[in-house]
Amino acid sequence: MSSRSRALAICSVLVVALLAVAAFAPLPFSLAQPGLTTNVLGANRGKPVITVAGADSRATSGELRMTTIAATGPDASVRLGDLVENWFATDRAVMPRDSVYPAGDSTREIERHNAAQMKASQDTATEAALGYLHESADEVRVKLRLADVGGPSAGLMFSLGIVDKLDGDGSGGDLTGGRTIAGTGTISKSGAVGAVGGVPLKTQAAGRDGATVFLVPKQECSDARAELPKGLRLIPVSTLSSAVDALKALEAGGKVPSC
Fold first, then answer.
1. In Å, how far from its chain's centre is CA 179?
2. Lowest mean pLDDT across 81-90, 151-160, 234-243
3. Strands 63-71 and 180-183
C-alpha cells in the first residue's frame, strides 16, 4: 500500500470514528413541542386562577388562554439522530438548551428559577393591570394561582384577565366578546409587552385548544406566521393598552391591527 493510500485509510477511519462519536454524544439542545394552555379566567386544579378582593369581580364568558411549550428536561440527552429527526418537523422545534433553561445546571435550580420568574411575572402583571385601570393596590388585592407553569411569558394574559375580571370592555361586556383568545408575551409594570420565543409552537397549542385569536408581541409577528394554524387570527400588540384596544375593536367590528 502506498503512503497516500495509507493516509487516506487513516483519515477515513478517523472520520468514521468522529461521526460515530457525534451520533452518540449528547448535544446542548432541547426538543420542544406545543405545550398546555390554561384559561386564566377559569380554574386551575379546582381553584380560580384570578381571585379579586376589595372590588367587585365580574362573571366572564369566553376564554383568555396563556400558552406554553413543552421541552425535553434539562438532564435529557439529545443526540444527533434526535436533531435530524426533529429539525424539519412542523410541530416540533430544536432549540439551544440555554434558551430553554437559561439558569442553573440541575433540575431543582431550574425549577426554583422558573418559579421565581412566574411569581415576579404575576406581581408585575397585577401592577400593570391595576395601573391601567387606575386602581390602587392598597384597595384592590389580586391573587393569581397557576400550578406547574414557570417563567414570565404569561404576563400579558394575566394582565388581560385581571382587566376583564374588574372592568371587562368598560361598558358592561366581556373583553373577550365570548371568544377563545390565546396569547403570549411578558409584561412590564408600565404595561409594555415583550418577546418570549417559541411562538410557532404556542400558536399550534392555541389552535389545538380552540382559540380563534392569538395575541403576539409585535416584534415576533414573523415568527408567529410560521406554521400558523388555519383559522387562527394574529393580532400584534406592544402594550397592555393596545391589547385591550384591539380586543374592543375586534368585538365592535372596528379596525384591528394585523401581522
1. 19
2. 81-90
3. parallel
Contact in structure between 147 and 256 (CB atoms under 8 Å): no
Region of 198 please: left (phi>0), alpha (psi -120 to 50) or beta. left
Dist CA 195 CA 190 (whole Å) = 15
Say whether 38 sits in a helix, a strand or coil.
strand
Q: Are 233 and 214 in contact (CB under 8 A)?
A: yes
Q: Comparing C-alpha atoms, which of 133, 122, 179 is closest to residue 156?
A: 122
Only one residue has cell 414557570, namely 150
Encode pLDDT of 142-155 as tens digits: 999 987 777 789 99
Report which of 198, 26, 188 is spatially closest to residue 123, judged by C-alpha positions: 188
Give the DSSP letter of residue 101.
Answer: S
Domains identified in the chain and CATH numbers: 36-69+115-252 (3.30.230.10)
How far is 105 from 101, CA to CA, in rounded Å? 8
Task: Please state the pTM of the whole predicted model.
Answer: 0.83
* Residue 81 host element (H or E): helix 80-87
236 phi/psi in degrees, rounded to 5:
-80, 140
Query: Is pLDDT at 88 greater than 90 in this prediction?
Result: no
What phi and psi, each to the nearest 5 degrees, are found at residue 196? -130, -30
8 A C-beta contact, residue 33 and residue 70:
yes
Q: Is the pLDDT of residue 76 over 70?
A: no
Cβ distance 66 to 187 under 8 Å?
A: no
Q: What is the spatial distance between Cα 4 and Cα 19, in angstroms, rounded to a whole number?
A: 23
Cβ contact 217:185 at 8 Å: yes
Which segments of 155-196 does DSSP mark as H helices, in order? 155-166
